[in-house]
Structure formats: C-alpha cells, structure tokens
Amino acid sequence: MNVTYRRIYEEASPSDGTRVLVDRVWPRGMRKDSARLDEWMRDVAPSTELRRWYGHDPDRFTEFRRRYFAELREPERRDAAERLRELAEEHDLTLLTATRDVDHSQAAVLAEWLRTHS
C-alpha cells in the first residue's frame, strides 16, 4: 500500500496515483477545474469542532491525532475511510490538503491510519 500526502497547491505528478482531497472546505484560491482530483472526500475530514479545537497548533497534534483516530471509527466517517482504504489497496494514493504544515495535518493522520489499520 503506497499512501502519500501533500498540498493541493503543488504541481500534480504522474506518481501521485489516485488524488483525493481530504479537506472539509474547498481550498482557498483553487479553481475546481485546475485541482486535478479524482475525488473530494469531505466526509473523511475531521469534524468542524475538532478542526477548530486543533487550529493547526503543532503542540496539540498528538491529541488531535488521537481524537481524529476516534472520529474515523464513527459511522459518519467510517464509510469514507473504508472507501479510502479500498482506493489505497487498488492504486497508489495521494491525500491532498490545503494545510501549510502537511506533516501536522489530517492528511498525515489519515495516511498513518491507512497504513496501520489495513
């Protein structure tokens, strides 16, 4: 299973495989026709409450990761998470986010979750 993550604003690469946006909100300044996405999976993104609590504060990342893992087991995210797992098993998968610090993003957490919960 090859799962990577990166910013949606970066140039698409043939090595990306299937490209999936995992943000709840469409990226600012990005035109839909230039995003080069295969899917936009809003339902797998963290809840609005969790996102606001986290605020992309690296000091909160460990707790954010723990809470987000718990959310991925909830019914409203489980189907989307399972769809991501299927995509990752079939093709190389690149999770896309608008977040500047991708190593402390939901895309990084999702990539880890997919690698460890298969």
TrEMBL record:
Q: What is this protein called?
A: DUF488 domain-containing protein
Per the UniProt record, the source organism is Amycolatopsis pigmentata
Please give the Pfam families that the UniProt record associates with this protein: DUF488-N3i
Q: InterPro entries annotated for this entry? A: YeaO-like
What taxonomic classification does the UniProt entry list for its organism?
A: Bacteria, Bacillati, Actinomycetota, Actinomycetes, Pseudonocardiales
